[in-house]
Amino acid sequence: MQTTASKSEHYRAFNQEFFLKHQRTLIWLLNTTLTRYWFRLVLRIHKDCPRQARIVEIFPHAYVWFAGYVKVKGQWQEQRVADFRTHPKFGKRLYHAFKPLWWAMHAWDLLADQLTPSLSFGFSTLTQYPDASPASTAMNAGVARDSVNESFSTIRSGSGNYSNSSPTSESPAQIVSSSTSNQYATIERGIFLFDTSAITSVASVSAATFSLYVTSKIDNFSLSVALVGSTPASNTSVANSDYGQLGLTRFASDVAISSITTSAYNDWGLNGSGLAAISLTGVTKLGTRADKDLDNSAPTWASSTNGRIVASFANNAGTSQDPKLVVTYAIPNVTISVTVLSGVLSLQASTVRIDITSAPILQAAIFSINSPTVMTEFNVSYESKYTTRGTSHESKYTLRNL
């Protein structure tokens, strides 16, 4: 019942495979002093991520930054904060920011693939990602029962007759009365899915915040917006029947429409039920609905009256108004043995973080991949070799005694 964006699929060249293949370069651009602010501005995350924070992972739909160390059950663990979006926004930002360069690379690849494949950038095929919907892993959508004239209980429990998985803006919590006494015309709900698999199964989640950028509101019914779970039939497209797939358990305290700020993000801090619903290895499925809708408690009727918020959805231009889910989590240590040969420490691991606790000349040191953070430093040079998400990395660092 709001605006739907046009579809352009060329940005799909910057997919998960691209981000993993070029992870080291992207992380370097995001953290190096000379390029940090510029590249974060390109991706439109310069206001969301603390300026000095070290970003450790970037994906088409999310980025993760290092937030220090916390003690969990007596052990020090690395704490990270992940910012998830419902669509591959950062892949889109790379495409649009460097569009002329991308097309030049595409033109080059058409020739290089025929003559010298080793010099190809891998962008020769424009139709490599032909999804009918912009969503490839997770989506956001509006669902409703609309344009009826029914009692509140009937419209609330009835079948959906409207759905939109490609909105630029939508009413994710809305109740509209009809002109007939004690009858209602519309109830609308929102569905928000986030691919949170980057957290990984070993992590422990400590906090999470869901945020919507609200552009306008009407508060005639004194409604609040509730955050719940959702179970749509598909992760990538929506059906009218998904109107009935919004949960009944509150995942956060309700936010009153009267207290919502327009032209700004408004936050729902997840409670225990909400945190438990975050998927560590797959898609986290959230939803929104009016509190009166959730509680099956009809608002005081008035003829042709509306209570709602309108929020920006993922197809809105840029990334500054996306629905987002920010998750704070900790990663446990993994203890390994190391060998020192002629002053060079060689190690192999497949974890995000390494806790070295047994070695001929070392006591304890903790490192993070991509750019190591050292809690205890020693006067020795070492090489590290590790594999993460199928990509092999090699680095050399010098440690000094504190």
- Fraction in beta strands: 35-45%
> What is the tally of beta strands?
21
Query: What coarse outline follows from CA principal-axis ratios?
Result: globular
Major sheet: 14 strands, antiparallel
- The secondary structure category is alpha+beta
How many whole angstroms does the radius of gyration measure? 24 Å
* Helical content (DSSP H or I, runs of 4+): 10-25%
**Parts with pLDDT < 50 across at least 5 consecutive residues:** 3-7, 123-134, 334-402
Query: How far apart are the termini?
Result: 62 Å
What is the overall pLDDT average? 77
| Helix and strand pattern | HHHEEEHHEHEEEEEEEHEHEEEEEEEEE
Number of H/I helices: 8
Structure described in brief:
The chain has 402 residues and is of the alpha+beta class. It has helices spanning 16-21, 23-31, 36-42, 89-97, 99-115, 152-157, 272-276, 291-295, and strands at residues 55-58, 62-72, 75-85, 140-145, 162-164, 169-177, 184-195, 204-219, 224-229, 255-256, 264-269, 283-290, 306-312, 324-331, 335-337, 339-341, 344-349, 353-358, 365-368, 380-388, 391-399. Strands 1, 2, 3, 4, 5, 6, 7, 8, 9, 10, 11, 12, 13 and 14 form a 14-stranded antiparallel β-sheet that branches. It has a four-stranded mixed β-sheet with strand order 16-17-20-21, with no helix packed on it. The chain has a three-stranded mixed β-sheet with strand order 15-18-19, with no helix packed on it.
Q: What is this structure's SSE topology?
A:
Layout: H1 16-21, H2 23-31, H3 36-42, E1 55-58, E2 62-72, E3 75-85, H4 89-97, H5 99-115, E4 140-145, H6 152-157, E5 162-164, E6 169-177, E7 184-195, E8 204-219, E9 224-229, E10 255-256, E11 264-269, H7 272-276, E12 283-290, H8 291-295, E13 306-312, E14 324-331, E15 335-337, E16 339-341, E17 344-349, E18 353-358, E19 365-368, E20 380-388, E21 391-399
Helix pairs in contact: 2-3
